[in-house]
Amino acid sequence: MKNSIAERVVDFLNGYPPFYMLSNKTLLEIATEVTIIYLEKGDTLFKKDDTCHNNFYIVRDGAINLYYTHDGVKNIMNIHDTGDVFGLRPLITKEPYKLTATANEESIVYAIPIAVFQSVTDYNTQIQKYLITAFASNAYDPYSAEIAGKIFVDYLPNKSQDMVNFQTANYTKSPIICTMESSLKEAAKKMSTHKIGCIVVVDNEKKPVGIITNSDIKNKIATGLFPIETPVTDIMSSPVITEKKGLTIADGQMQMIKHSIGHLCITKDGTVNSKLIGVLTHHDVLVTLGNSPTVILKEIKRAKRTKKLRAARLKGNSLLKSYIEQNIPISHIINVISQINDAVTVRVIELALKKMPTVPPVAFSWLALGSQGRKEQLLFTDQDHALVFEDVPKEHYEETQNYFLQLAKLVTKSLNKIGFEYCKADMMASNPEWCKSLTAWKTQFKNWILKPDEKAVLLSSIFFDYNCVYGNKQLVNDLTDTIFATLEETNLFYKFLGRDAIKSPSPLGFFKQFLVEQNGDQKELFNIKSRALMPLIDAARLLILSKQIKGVNNTSERFEKLAELEPQNKELHESCSYAFKALSKFKTKQGLLHGNSGKFIDLETLTKEEKLKLRRCFKPIQKIQETLKIRFDLKNFI
Amino acid sequence: MILKWFHKNKKDYPDFWMDYMDSFKNFKKSPIEETRFIAFDTETTGFDKKNDRILSIGAVTFIGKSIHVNDSLELYLEQEIFNPETVKIHGLMKKNALEKVTELEAIKLFLAYIKNAVLIAHHANFDKNMVNEMLARHGLGKLQNSFIDTGHLFYKSKHIIYREHLKKHDTLDDLCKELNVPKVDRHTANGDALITAIVFLKILSRLDKRKNLQWEYLLNE
Prior knowledge:
The structure holds 2 protein chains of 2 kinds.
Chain A: H1 4-13, H2 24-32, E1 35-39, E2 44-46, E3 55-61, E4 63-70, E5 73-81, E6 85-86, H3 89-92, E7 100-103, E8 107-113, H4 114-121, H5 125-139, H6 144-147, H7 162-167, E9 177-179, H8 184-193, E10 198-202, E11 208-213, H9 214-222, H10 232-235, E12 242-244, H11 249-259, E13 263-267, E14 276-281, H12 282-289, H13 293-302, H14 306-325, H15 330-355, E15 364-368, H16 370-373, E16 385-389, H17 394-418, E17 435-437, H18 438-450, H19 454-463, E18 467-471, H20 473-489, H21 492-501, E19 526-527, H22 528-546, H23 555-565, H24 570-594, E20 600-601, H25 608-631
Parallel strand pairs in A: 9-10, 12-13, 16-17
Antiparallel strand pairs in A: 1-8, 2-7, 3-6, 3-8, 4-5, 4-7, 10-11, 13-14, 15-16, 15-18, 19-20
Helix pairs in contact in A: 1-2, 11-12, 13-14, 13-15, 14-15, 14-17, 15-17, 18-20, 19-21, 21-22, 22-23, 22-24, 22-25, 23-24, 24-25
Chain B: H1 2-9, H2 15-22, E1 37-44, E2 54-63, E3 66-76, H3 84-90, H4 103-114, E4 118-121, H5 124-137, E5 147-149, H6 150-157, H7 160-163, H8 172-179, H9 189-210, H10 215-219
Parallel strand pairs in B: 1-4, 4-5
Antiparallel strand pairs in B: 1-2, 2-3
């Protein structure tokens, strides 16, 4: 029999993930079994500790609060509005609800029976992945506020210990261990009986001292390097990298990428000085995320040709896409993507060095500048880089510079093939101006800082956010020290930077309209980069330089650091950090949608809600600009 | 009144009617939140109860605040009488591809579905009369269910000083606007039934806030 209501439910579900991944026929089967629930403001759908319902929910109209109460304080975890799914816990486990769901306003929700949903979606992995990620990101993600658009309203810090439980990555809780006295043979036997790829060596207090993996056995025993009766202590990798229980999948993954390892030991207090309680393997992470930056990084490290690098970097882009879709916290996305970008650059330089007729005459270091230097590059952008080489006697200068220019040309060409456009302003190491000896660089920076002019300030946004990607780190540290020493000599440079940071005022016009571009190709488009992101980037740089903090390049991290250093401005800096992340995400989403850098936003295509969200991000911009005006006394300087 | 009528005509009625009547035996009113409500709506060829005919009946059931999508009724009736004027409202033409049932079949299905539930309709009298007239054509008695008119209930839900601003006969559209109910599928019997149900729930929540809601208040004209 015809059921018009079910058809309308289908029309609605069709507009939202994960339902749009399903066929109309399947959706109709689901819709027929849906229960429409009307909730008044304050009505409770389920309570913390209630046994799980046989349904999960999607908001049709209104908004649903998810919260828990701790010591009498109501902590709102998330506010779901139209199209958001929630109450997913029963999909994952049969544990009682951990949060209470009540109507924030008059609402209508659809209850979707889990049994029906699972049978018709046939455990579709893509959908399961979406729902699990949605569940996980609602439950453990400290930035769930950001996802809900909540970030734009208030900053909701979450200090509760309760939440830590949600973060727990699913590690192996009974790891296979052996004592320090064991022989490798005994250890290998144990691994073989348990069909497991690694064994942890522990001391008599069960503290982890080392780890042996399949590849250790392959590389050290099978090659005949060590006899089979060797004590495990001789071939184990030691010390092990440890973590506390309760680490997020994201944290675990970052640790693995950072140390190029596949196993983390989980100990009682997170250090090697306490009892081993579990092992988190790369496989565990993969199973949870279903997507692997480590695999991409491996591919990059092994690539022998530019073509392969391009393929790997493109994989990074689809990873980025799925991360954004899955609402993975933007800070984590940025971390992963910049690791990939840096790895690509490193590999390109390695390959270029092989093509050079000789080895480099002196030590050098490759600097990523601008967004890559700040580790904020998400989509393909222009190349911005520079090269610094060790000082050489005057008579060899030209010759040395030529060598590195040639190297840089090879690198820029490859990077271009991979997808990074040439820098229009030619700020690349292949330009003699940006390929210099350490002393030449020092002089250059001194000039900029002591005799600032428009050009210096223009370049500052690129050159003051550098990061050593490849080569000799000492050269870079040396340069940094000189820069900071020079900065102490003058205040003028800060004023110039300050003027630059406040030059684009709040992106809202007098009538609360968005200020759009007045002319050119991008007429009527909103430039999110120059109007919203740059003021935050500029402000963060200026403040962090003036505090003489080295090595914090990322804008959101800079603000977090500033929040730490200036407790009186904590709230402002934190809101800037969050706004920056939210805006980056916005830009990335737009970029992915239109296949470009996402710099220009067509306001017409935004929903009212998105405009509102965007607008709320501008508040911290205005505030931080006012702070700069006062702090650097810019009033009369403009 | 039910009893009197029962004795008189018992033998003349078909089984489905007797089943329907039986559902009212020993019927006791339960608390509002446990009561089975049915919101329903009819699309007709016009407003004359004698000459016009029902083209479709839509109904949804709810207990508490939950409406089960699969527990709904959507009937399209075969009718000889046809009025081109109303087609533009409900879109039901004489020859539609829709699966249709005879009037008698529709009555059977409708009665089996509603049983003793409390019926809710917007301008309930109209729908009630149309159904009763249809029942009469087939030699059956009148509907025995309690009726609630959302139009009247809305009027009552307003404080006395605001009532003068209300039109005596607010349309369903007016109520949707006032109560912020999305108008999806307006003028399909089933869609209007769902809208009516939500309108009812919304009015109920307003009334409930003011006082402990009693049946007398709801049913009292």
